[in-house]
Design brief:
The protein is α+β, with helices and mostly antiparallel strands and about 350 residues long. The protein has helices spanning about 180-200, 205-225, 235-240, 240-265, 270-275, 295-305, 315-320, 335-340, and strands at about 5, 25, 35-40, 45-50, 280, 340-345. Among the domains are: about 5-60, no CATH class; about 180-210 and about 240-345, no CATH class. The strands form 2 sheets. The chain has a 4-stranded antiparallel β-sheet, with no helix packed on it. It has a two-stranded antiparallel sheet with strand order 5-6.
Amino acid sequence: MRLVTDIPVGSPPVPPGRHAAPGGWYPDPLDSRLERYWDGWQWSRNTRESDAPAASPGPHGQPVNGGPGPAPGSFPPGSYGAGQDPQGHYPPNQYPQGQYPPNPYPQNPDPQGQYPQGQYPSNPYPQGQYPPNPYPQNPYPQNAYPQSPYGAGQYPPAYPANVPGRQAVATADGVRLAGWWWRALAVVLDGIFTSLIAAALTFPVYARLFAAMADVLRESMRAAQAGQPAPPLPASTALISTTDQLTLTLVSLAVGLAYHVIFLRLKGATPGKLICGLRVVPVDQGRFTGQLAWGSVLIRAAIWVLPGAVAYLLIVKIFDSLFPLWHPKRQALHDLAARTQVVRRG
């Protein structure tokens, strides 16, 4: 008699070498008097008494009329088609233990039979000799390039050599000379710096000058509002006294001299030249790295700064600024007097 019961959990004992028990009848986990069919994945609801007679299996191994199914571990015939196995099931090995299927790839026979196994042809070249080089020899002769014109410890100049008859572009030792526009920019920057320093030191003088100018402006506006003619402009001494004028001149000269002397002696360049990447060196010594001599520094600073103290000497300063445009070594008048040159910093 076939009984229908609840589906138990778990699985039958797994045979060695498999990951799941094969389909078949096993003792029922819920009732030891019965057998329950395991389909390979889970328990079914089909049970039978353990002493029931065997019956022919139905489709896919299921028992017919409660009859027994395939034996434990057997595969239902025709369930998976020819050459197919259920998932997790593998056919038994057809080769006895210790034997393997034949190699499907034939061995590489020696068609000539010249070299028995383990033997190789002898070297056709005697000991110490090698086959000829299949590549041609180097077509370039040894030392195809000319030797360097500079000996050991000698190096080419850092900048192209000067051309005779033209304005020099480098010092005698090959350091590039400064261009005129870079020198002009450095002069403008230095003029701004010295003017700010002098204005800070003479602030009281400028305060009195601005107060006097403000009084003149107020008088002119008052006369215009009253419909009266403008008052005459006061004399320069009424706006700034002779003493104040002399004070401004002396402070400007002192600041300019101190500015150039100190920086040229300590740094070899003024702040404006440092910003523009320039430095002052002795003539034809572009690689000079020491301090300039006191005599060169004082002469250079005096010739550059002192003409600015008198108005009619400003033409000398302008001529001094333009002189490097046509001088062969790009020197200004103060460079000629101090025997210096201005070069680009490396």
